[in-house]
């Protein structure tokens, strides 16, 4: 990835983000730790994630244009997010990036960028709380 380009560009733009989201959510839904947190109809979540990741990775501000300030930690507060769940979320993303053939350096860079927010969203130490 060139140092002056965005992750959005390096991954291949909007179509690539769309593909990433479509590869990621089936893994999320199938994961025993995080799958049950998501609604049966995953399409609206996928659309929001497509918009969010597009802007998070340096593309057009699609999410903010429609939904306003991301406030992602606050939006995740209704869900009990443990360290194990953050790890599971990142593992699904790692698997999706690998499945799509994203090269290793870029994959690690993307995961590093996502691990900040993922661990920041932890809001409980155990499922019981
Ligand atoms: C740490 C582990 C994570 C878990 C367990 C988790 C789980 C969830 C859940 C349960 C929802 C709500 C689905 C619904 O609408 O009912 C959600 C929404 C969302 N998540 Fe996460 N998430 C995690 C990390 C992340 C990360 C790292 C990002 C992006 C950096 C992210 C971006 C989003 C977005 C954009 C939405 C939609 C927000 C909206 O309603 O507008 N999530 N997540």
UniProtKB/TrEMBL annotation:
<keyword id="KW-0408">Iron</keyword>
<dbReference type="InterPro" id="IPR001486">
    <property type="entry name" value="Hemoglobin_trunc"/>
</dbReference>
<dbReference type="Pfam" id="PF01152">
    <property type="entry name" value="Bac_globin"/>
</dbReference>
<protein>
    <submittedName>
        <fullName>Globin</fullName>
    </submittedName>
</protein>
<comment type="similarity">
    <text>Belongs to the truncated hemoglobin family. Group II subfamily.</text>
</comment>
<dbReference type="GO" id="GO:0019825">
    <property type="term" value="F:oxygen binding"/>
</dbReference>
<dbReference type="InterPro" id="IPR012292">
    <property type="entry name" value="Globin/Proto"/>
</dbReference>
<keyword id="KW-0813">Transport</keyword>
<dbReference type="GO" id="GO:0020037">
    <property type="term" value="F:heme binding"/>
</dbReference>
<keyword id="KW-0479">Metal-binding</keyword>
<dbReference type="GO" id="GO:0005344">
    <property type="term" value="F:oxygen carrier activity"/>
</dbReference>
<dbReference type="GO" id="GO:0046872">
    <property type="term" value="F:metal ion binding"/>
</dbReference>
<dbReference type="InterPro" id="IPR009050">
    <property type="entry name" value="Globin-like_sf"/>
</dbReference>
<dbReference type="InterPro" id="IPR044203">
    <property type="entry name" value="GlbO/GLB3-like"/>
</dbReference>
<keyword id="KW-0349">Heme</keyword>
